[in-house]
Amino acid sequence: MRGIAKATLISIIVAVALFVFTSFIYFFPWYTTLIVETFNLSQIVAGDNYLKDSYYHDTLSRLQDKPIFKEYSDEIRITIRREDGKEYNYYDDDETLFETSMDQDKPYQQRGHTIEVTIRAVYPLRVKIWGKTITKELDRHFTMKTVGLKHYKDLDYYTIK
User: Fold this and answer.
1) How many Å apart are CA 42 and CA 142, to the nearest integer?
2) pLDDT per residue over 55-95, tens digit each?
3) Residue 65 confidence (pLDDT)
4) Which of 44, 49, 51, 89 lies at a 20 to 30 A Cα distance from 151?
5) pTM as predicted
6) Is 9 helix (H, G, I), strand (E, B) or coil?
7) Within 13 Å of residue 55, how many CA atoms lie on the same side as its CB?
8) DSSP, res 53
């Protein structure tokens, strides 16, 4: 009797482990997509030293259109952090709006400054056991640092570290 109980328990544990594993099969492409989009956005941000409105919305819509991101599409967050600690989502595409602003109020910094790009999203981990679905929301992010490449004539050149 004891052997039958152990065999049943082991069978249940193996079945649950297989269900969890099959749910995680979709996690790796999901996270890889998050990494690729963060990398692409960091290259764009490095080119202008800040994130423009159009690039923000293009990346956001590209992520929201992917099937695995659709369910929690309102939970996707794109954040940019400058070297001085200022955090923002995006700024207007028209750079001429910032020409009369003070240097510390401009969204961009002189080339050579570090910019941190973060994309945060929620992965729905689902396991269906005996007809009952167990759902766990995994909030994950990927962060990549890049260096601004563009030289702005309206900023002091010697502010480079």
Assistant:
1) 11
2) 899 999 999 998 888 888 899 999 999 888 888 776 666 66
3) 92
4) 89
5) 0.77
6) helix
7) 25
8) H
- Whole-angstrom distance, CA of residue 155 vs CA of residue 49: 12
Using one digit for the tens of pLDDT, what is the confidence trace for 144-157? 999 887 766 666 66
Structure tokens, 118: 């973060």
In terms of Cα–Cα distance, which of 35, 41, 81 is closest to 61?
41
Question: Cα(47)–Cα(53) distance, rounded to whole angstroms?
Answer: 14
* Residue closest to 142 by CA, chosen among 76, 90, 87: 76
Give Cα separations from 43 to 15, 22, 36, 38 (angstroms): 44, 34, 11, 9
Six token digits for residue 73: 């599409």
Q: Write the single-letter amino acid at 156.
A: D
Q: How far is CA 90 from CA 25, 71, 82, 87, 122, in A?
A: 33, 24, 12, 10, 21
CB 135, CB 125: distance < 8 Å: yes
